[in-house]
Amino acid sequence: MRIAVLVTCFNRVDVTLRGIDSLVRSLNACAELDYKIFLVDDGSSDGTGVQVKRLFPFVEVSVGSGELYWSGGMTRAFRAASAHAPFDAYLLFNDDVDLFEVEIPRFHTTYQRLNEAHPSILVGACVDLRGNVTYAGFRLGSPLRVLDFKRVEPVDSPVPCDTFNANFVLIPGRFFEEVGGLDPAYSHSYADIDLGLVAGKLGVPSFVYELPVGVCEKNVPLNVKIRLGGMRDRWKLLFRHPYGLGPYFHFAWKHRPRWAFPLISMLQISKRLLLLAGLSR
């Protein structure tokens, strides 16, 4: 099985090196797996990409502008991988995941078993140091609430989900290549959630693997950053790249009822103006 691993990073050299080391050791433990890693260093000032290339010379490193963010970086990594396509599968990997090395060969075997019957996506859930699930899959909630999702956590066997966080996700190569990777309309957020929903619409189901695959601490939620920031910070987080209204509207237009889009748009603008003024949480 031949896979492309897509990773993006920015200015956390120690975290990235630890994550790549964990990734390489885990993939090397998998039988009959041929992999190539494509990493985008989005203009780090701490030499992240240089250090990755020094310690892991087989990793293909590209350098971004500093304005790619997560989705943009992963899109650039996919573009680099496309020169070596086709691949049997693509692994989307976050550099801050510390993998459980013993679990990844079983994850790989489960993915192969699922795909014997039908092309399927397998999602690896992550936990924090206390064992609480931080990233996993999701079930759709209300179709009228743009970001209403219910988390799907690991159980005793692979469990279906509608979409996912892409901290560690293995995706059928043919499907991923046919849709052109992640939607380039997104810069940072939404792209992984969008991909899972697109896959479901095209008949490619997603499943959460039965056990956590690694440790990944939860990032500070955007609403907390907004609440703690001053007016200038709130404005940037609410209306400027990469968190502005454009990606939200694009996601809503693709995945929510078109007739509801005007109402969804007005409600979101009103909510952000209240957040900007410090009148809402």
Which descriptors apply to this entry?
single chain; 281 residues; alpha/beta; Spore Coat Polysaccharide Biosynthesis Protein SpsA, Chain A; 2 domains; eight-stranded mixed sheet; four-stranded mixed sheet; 21% strand; globular; transferase
Topology, please?
Elements: E1 2-9, H1 13-28, E2 34-41, H2 48-55, E3 60-63, H3 69-82, E4 89-93, E5 98-99, H4 104-117, E6 121-123, E7 126-127, E8 133-135, E9 137-140, E10 149-152, E11 159-161, E12 163-164, E13 168-172, H5 173-179, H6 191-201, E14 206-208, E15 214-215, H7 222-228, H8 231-239, H9 245-255, H10 261-276
Parallel strand pairs: 1-2, 1-4, 2-3, 6-14, 7-15
Antiparallel strand pairs: 4-13, 5-15, 6-13, 7-8, 9-10, 9-12, 11-14
Helix pairs in contact: 1-2, 7-8, 8-10, 9-10
Which CATH first-tier class of the largest domain would you pick? Alpha Beta
Structural class: alpha/beta
User: Sheet bearing the most strands, described?
Assistant: 8 strands, mixed
The total count of strands amounts to 15
Distance between the termini: 47 Å
Q: What is the CATH architecture assignment of the largest domain?
A: Alpha-Beta Complex
Order of strands in the sheet with the most strands?
A: 3-2-1-4-13-6-14-11
What's the number of structural domains?
Answer: 2
Count of helical segments? Answer: 10
Describe the global form. globular
Order of helices and strands: EHEHEHEEHEEEEEEEEHHEEHHHH
The poorly predicted ranges are none
> Helical content, roughly?
40-55%
Strand composition percent = 15-25%
CATH topology-level fold name of the largest domain: Spore Coat Polysaccharide Biosynthesis Protein SpsA, Chain A
Using only C-alpha atoms, the radius of gyration works out to 19 Å
Mean pLDDT: 95
Family: Belongs to the glycosyltransferase 2 family.
Pfam families: Glycos_transf_2
Protein name: Glycosyltransferase, GT2 family
GO molecular function, one term: glycosyltransferase activity
